[in-house]
Structure formats: structure tokens, C-alpha cells
Amino acid sequence: MQENKDIVVAKTAIDREVEALEIMKNELDENFTKALDVLQNCKGRVIVTGMGKSGHVGRKIAATFASTGTPSFFVHPGEASHGDLGMIADDDVVIAISNGGESKELSDILTYCKRYNISLIAITKNPESTLGLAGDYLLKLPNDGEACPLGLAPTSSTTATLVMGDILAIALMERKGFSSTDYKKRHPGGKLGAILCKVSDLMHTGDEVPLIDENAIMQDALLVMSAKMLGCVGITNAQGDLVGIITDGDLRRWMSPKLITEKVSNVMTKNPKTIQPDVLASEAVYTMNNTGHGITNLFVVENQKPIGVIHIHDCLRAGVN
Q1: How many other C-beta atoms lie within 10 A of the C-beta of residue 66?
Q2: How many domains does the chain have?
Q3: Residue-by-residue DSSP string for 136-160
């Protein structure tokens, strides 16, 4: 059966864009490493600028830098000519983007960089263009036309520009040892924040943790459970190690007139499931949901000592599932 014409057009466009990326990959040279050196050693901010579609992509590149440990923001070249040049400081690095390298709107920024000796990284397909010659470091885009059937609409070129920004950011992350913890600090909200949330971010600590000695009786345990309102109490030995847990479920199973006089060590579940504070909260949810009968609390321990407790509702409220 003949393939749908729309699908053929789409696949052809994808092939053209992939070809452009292959060309860019093969043309990467020492300028990429030198640009990374400058970006890594930047004492100020990374200023990204560009006009039109290059500007749209530039905004995303700046946002990616900022969220991955490299302070950065976008400066519109038109606004730069009307006062926003003052946003560029001596310790900054400028990344200027223009596919053809002749965007007239960039001229004032290029002049400003030269006048004040501000490092300039040029992203363009044309090394002999105004931008290409002005840049201290040239990151070359593929000169392979556009995926657009007219060869006019920025398509392959903007994809290549976006990827150039991505590989700069990724390489900088590797150089700086940027971790998931660092990423979490910059993404506290939304699904990303929930995914990266650790047990230590959500657990109850200090006076909120329901604990009682193993020699106590159930009357005392019930008072602690009622006061802390987490539906459980942890049982500790003379060394302060967690040796058991009593939950609402245990109370239902042991319900009798004599319950309040029983020793907690007789009622508790020994060697309860526990978790470490530095693991992802999603692991805590998985553990609670996959114990065979399901539990709603996990004590958080270090060297067998309870330092907190995490409840399934804490995780759900934070968007962890």
C-alpha cells in the first residue's frame, strides 16, 4: 500500500534535519572546547542574543543554561540598542546567534563586546559573515539548506542551533559535576520537582516522630500514636535502635480488653521496613506499595537509629507517585 503523502513529506523533513545534525557533528572542532573553557570560567553571566527565530531558540538556550548551573539570560538585540546593553557586564560572556551571520540588529552588541573586551561566542553557518568574523570563538552551524520545501523557513537551522545550545549545556554539566540534587534546587515545582524529591525533604522529624521504648506498655503507645497522629509508633531498644513498629492495623488485629496492659514488644511487628533519608521519595512510595499487604508509613533510619518517618500522604501531597 502506498504511504500517505503527508507521512512521506514529514519523513523527508526529518531526514533533512537529521542530515544537518550529522554535518554539524562532523564539523565540531577545537572551537567547541575553547568555547566551553570560556563558559566554564565565566565569572559573570552568559548572555544569549539573537533576532527572529534565532532569538526564540536563544531564549530556550539561556533557560537551559540557567537551569543546569550556568547563570544566563536572554537579551533582545533591538532592546539592547535602546539601553539594555547596560545589562551586559565586563565579566559576562555573550553568545550571539544568526544563521547567516548578517543580522543588522546584532551590530550594536558586537561593537559593545569589542569595545569592552567581552568574550563573544558566535553561532552561525557562515564563518566569513560579520558575526563569524567578530566572534572570538566560532561554533559553526551546518550550511545545508532548510528542511522547508522552499528552502526558506528556518527549520534545519533552528534545530541545529537548539542542539548546539543543548550540547554546550550538557558538556558544562559534565565539567561542573552538576548533580540531580543541584537540578532539584532549580526545579522545586511541578513533576520534575516531585521526581527528584528525596525522603529527607518530606519526612517528619524531631518531636513529630512517634517513638517509645520496647519495655513500655500499650497504653503508653496508644497515647503516643494519638498525639503524633501518623497512625504508627516506632519501638526502640536501650541503644536507641529501631526494633519494631506498631500500626493501626496491629491494633485491630490485637483488639481485646487486655490490649492496653500488653507490653509493646509483644504487639509490635519486628524488623519493620525502613528507608534511608537520601533516597528518592518515589522509592519510598514503591516500598510502601509493594510489601505484600501495603503499608502507609516508613521509618527513616541511619545506622539503625530512627531519624524520621514518612507517610504515604506526604508523598502524594508532594506529587510523588
Answers
A1: 18
A2: 2
A3: SEEEEPP-S--SSTTS-SSSHHHHH
Greater confidence (146 vs 54) lies with 54
Q: What is the dihedral of CA 124, 126, 130, 132, to 10 degrees?
A: 60
The answer to whether residues 306 and 210 touch, using CB atoms and an 8 Å cutoff, is no
CB contact at 8 A, 91 and 42: yes
Structural domain including 252 reads: 199-317
Phi, psi angle pair for 125, to nearest 5°:
-85, -15
Take residue 149 and report the three cell numbers written for it: 520545501
Query: 132-141, 178-187, 276-285: lowest mean pLDDT where?
Result: 178-187
Q: Which of these ranges, 45-49, 183-187, 216-220, 307-311, has the smallest mean pLDDT?
A: 183-187
Domain contains 111: yes
* Mean pLDDT calculated for residue range 288-296: 76
Name the band, by pLDDT with cuts 50, 70 and 90, for residue 190: low
Residues 116 and 253 reside in one and the same domain: no
Confidence of residue 201 (pLDDT cuts 50, 70, 90): confident
Residues 21 and 154 in one domain: yes
In a domain, 186, yes or no: no
DSSP 209: S
Closest CA to 45 of 128, 119, 145, 146: 119
* Of 258, 276, 267, 254, residue with least CA distance to 199: 276
Give 204's DSSP letter: B
3-class secondary structure, 315: helix
Reported as a pLDDT band with limits 50, 70 and 90, residue 152 is confident
Residue 283 scores a pLDDT above 90: no
pTM equals 0.67
Closest by CA position to 224, among listed 216, 253, 271: 216
Strand partners for 198: 280
Cβ contacts of 76 within 8 Å, gap of 6 or more: 49, 55, 84
The residue type of 118 is I
Helices (H) and strands (E) in the chain, counts: 15, 12
